[in-house]
Amino acid sequence: MTSLSAVSIGALAAPAAAFAPPSRETPVRIRGLSYTVGAQGRRARATPILADVDLEIAPRQFVALVGPSGCGKSTLLNFLAGLLPPQAGSFSLGEQEQGRPRSVGYMFQQHGLLPWRTVQKNVELGLEMAGLPTAERADRAHAMLADMGLQGFEHHYPKEISGGMCQRVALARTLATQPDLLLMDEPFGALDAQTRALIHEMFSAYWETHRKTVLFVTHDLAEAVFLADRVLVMSARPGRIAADHAIDLPRPRRLEALRVDPHFHARVETLWQDIKTQSAVAMRGHA
User: Fold this and answer.
1) Collapsing DSSP states into helix, strand and coil, what is residue 13?
2) Is the pLDDT of residue 14 over 60?
3) What global pTM score does this model have?
4) Are 119 and 154 in contact (CB under 8 A)?
5) Are 124 and 141 in contact (CB under 8 A)?
């Protein structure tokens, strides 16, 4: 499966890990999360991917996660989505006011649209799986497509629209389920620079209105600074949080203004220095 519209999070049973009780104050809380792969044969060596990750994300906060390749960024998202059982540590995702577990939306780099479904029906997929009535599914999908600037393309198929438009459909599909927590794994990384800039503006405007809690993985430092309230830098493998930078640029943000803003460029440069340090550690480790 290459894309999920919504992921239902339940208690994860793992011998060395605990799913902590939900917290109304902090929708994401991670304590001592660790994960290791390999070491199945007698001579095999285990490879630690994450080690003692501690993290808290406040309600309605947009957090970007950057770091050298292979440091466990995507693995961390997979834990929060319930796709991997943690081997050590604990985490909680908070709860809704009614006490139910929070819903989670997960968006990947590839759009994963179903080619036999129209744009409208692709956006309705998560709502259909959730059992919403036909009319409500259609209304919600239509409104979300309008927010993404895709009016008039509801009855097209994925092969009939551009890659950037497909990615907007995938974003609409994820947001249509109205998740409390949005996990995004390099969702705009495969797009050309012009399309990516336009989607940055569109998604930033959506977030300004709806203020979802977001954990956003990217290798693009300028993207991280433009979108996020905080940028976390992960260490070389085994990954842990090496630095936590507050992004205090005023909102709403516009790319045209930030391109000539020295404060914006200073924050990107600070992140680059952190990434260079961690990448050098990673390269020495593989030498």
Assistant:
1) coil
2) no
3) 0.85
4) yes
5) yes
Dist. CA 5–CA 2, nearest whole Å: 10
The arrangement of strands across the sheet holding 4-8 comes to: 4-8, 103-107, 181-185, 213-217, 62-66, 230-234, 241-246
What's the pLDDT at 274? 94
The closest of 276, 170, 271 to 223, measured between CA atoms, is 271
Neighbours of 283 (CB within 10 A): 11
What are the backbone angles phi and psi of residue 211, rounded to the nearest 5°?
50, 55
Average pLDDT over residues 210-217: 94
Distance CA(238)–CA(223), nearest Å, equals 25
CA-CA distance, 220 to 217, in Å (whole number)?
9
Does residue 138 have a pLDDT over 80?
yes
Q: Which residue has the tokens 């309605």?
A: 60
Sorted by sequence, the CB contacts under 8 Å of residue 196 that are 6+ apart come out as: 188, 223
First to last CA, the chain: 34
Neighbouring-strand partners of residue 31: 90
CA 225/CA 216 separation, integer angstroms: 11
Q: Looking at this protein, which amino acid is placed at residue 152?
A: G
Q: Are 68 and 275 in contact (CB under 8 A)?
A: yes
Which strand (E) or helix (H) includes residue 136? helix 134-147
Query: What is the count of structural domains for the chain?
Result: 1
Handedness of CA 96, 101, 107, 108 (dihedral sign): positive
Token pair 């008039």 in the structure block, residue: 152
> What would the two tokens of residue 280 be?
């050098």
Give the whole-angstrom CA distance, residue 231 versus residue 233. 7
For residues 91 and 181, the answer to whether their CB atoms sit within 8 Å is no
Domain containing residue 228: CATH number: 3.40.50.300
Containing domain of residue 62, as a range? 4-286
pLDDT at 108: 87
